[in-house]
Amino acid sequence: MEKTEKGLIQKIQAILEDRVVPVAMKISQQRHLASIRDGLTILVPITIIGGFAVLLAQPPVAADVMPTNFILQILCAWRDWAASCADTLLIPYNLTIGAISIYVVLGVSYRLCKHYKMDTISNIITTLLVYLCVAGIPTAFVTDETTVTAVPLTNLGASGMFTAIIVALGVIEINHFFIEKKLVIRLPDSVPPNVAAPFNVLIPGVVSLLVFMGIDGLCIAYLGTGITGLVYAVFQPLLSATGSLPSIILINLLMTTFWFFGIHGGNMLGIVTTPITTAALALNAEAYVAGKELPCIFAGAFNTVYGGYISYMAVIICILIAGKAAQSRSIAKLAIVSTAFNINEPVIFGLPTVLNPFTLIVFFICNNLNVAIAYILMSSGFLGKFYITLPFTVPGPLQAWLASMDIKAIFVWLALLVLDVVIAMPFMRAYDKQLLAEEAETIAEN
Question: Using CA atoms, how far apart are residues 428 and 333, in angstroms rounded to an integer?
């Protein structure tokens, strides 16, 4: 029976390696998709800074709460201080998450430039200019009988992210085409490259500007909204559909399957999930600052905090409680600290969970059950949604709390951990028996 099971796994692995993995690798390495994924990854420090600025400016305590005990005294003092300094404290937020599309343009265009081995600084500056000409159009405001011209942040926040991606890819492709065809201003060879590089993007930059401003003008004339509004209207249903519970479960199933065969599931599916979760997090942050209901559940690190961060720890706990095999116990003792900080590679490759049907079943059940419960609790309003980004090494329960500033998240996370331990225990006991049999067989042979 065991040989049949191993033979089946090997056949499935061979099919994946021969047919699925090559296609998935091509998709993950496709220059435009990879540029989007890697370009948005650069934004992580920006979103962390913006999230903490929101946290400082708007502490998690209501205006009508009175300082009746020591903890509430601290929170109320924080609230009163934040209220007096709100404008200053929100500056980092307004210039990070509030203007996140600017950084999206820079990040995505930078990554695509690196792929083409083009001069980066002159190309990304051109791309930023084109984007600002369609999404950051200066507007005149009258304040105290004084006319002020300013760039509104309306289209530079989360709603402009998808337009920023399109502009970044489009402008760099136009620039690359012109440079490849040598349709550029060519200076003598004696001119240093750093001086000549800006002139290489002058003609394609003008063409890009005319193309995108022309499209924007046509959209305004015939549709009543600019290119930013049009693109957001097109992508908003996709954002909602991808953030639905069935979509999240499908993503988890695919990711777990990839990890089972030793393939980095996050890298494979990050092309799809990273733009969605980043945009959703920015939308939630904007809603939080505006005092509105947070619209997105599938935001930030929701899927990992309530998924793998819990189930991997549950597997370790099961081994430490009931495991008798020397191999698994030694790995569990070494890996528990790293797993607590969400570094799961020692378990993935040391236990291992790769090609391990016992842990595969555990992750299939636990990851999706955890996410489904958290999703339902968030959609019902019982649990806060994520609007803050944190470093991935922040322990799971703390990350669940700080990302949503809902103290109940800690208790939900711990309750799901207990549930996962209960579910995983019989599977890990069965795995432990298999390891003990293998150890006994090894001892007998020696």
Answer: 15
Task: Count other C-beta atoms under 10 Å from residue 425's C-beta.
Answer: 17
Residue 16 is given by DSSP the state I
User: Is the CB of residue 90 less than 8 Å from the CB of residue 54?
Assistant: yes
Report the predicted TM-score, pTM, of the whole model to 2 decimal places.
0.83
Handedness of CA 221, 159, 62, 90 (dihedral sign): negative
SS3 22: helix
In sequence order, which residues have a C-beta less than 8 Å from that of residue 298 and are 6 or more positions away? 242, 243, 244, 247, 248, 276, 277, 280
Q: Note the pLDDT tens digit of each residue in 105-135.
A: 999 999 999 999 998 899 999 999 999 999 9
Q: Tens digits of per-residue pLDDT, 210-267?
A: 999 999 999 999 888 889 888 888 888 877 777 889 999 999 998 888 888 777 777 7
Structure tokens at 363: 């992750």
Residue 304 C-beta-side C-alpha neighbours within 13 Å? 25
Nearest to 215 by CA among 151, 163, 140: 163
Sign of CA pseudo-dihedral 291, 297, 298, 302: positive
Examine residue 92 and say whether the peptide bond preceding it is cis (omega within 30 degrees of 0).
no
Contacts of 185 (CB under 8 A, 6+ apart): 199, 200, 202, 203
Sequence letter at residue 178: F
pLDDT tens for 5-37 read 556 656 666 666 666 667 666 766 788 888 888
Q: How far apart are CA 239 and CA 161, in angstroms?
A: 12
3-state secondary structure of 143: strand
Rounded to whole angstroms, the maximal C-alpha distance in the chain is 93
Residue with tokens 């109940």: 408
Question: What amino acid is encoded at 371 in this protein?
Answer: V
384 touches 302 (CB < 8 A) = no
Residue from 119, 100, 120 nearest 110 by CA: 120
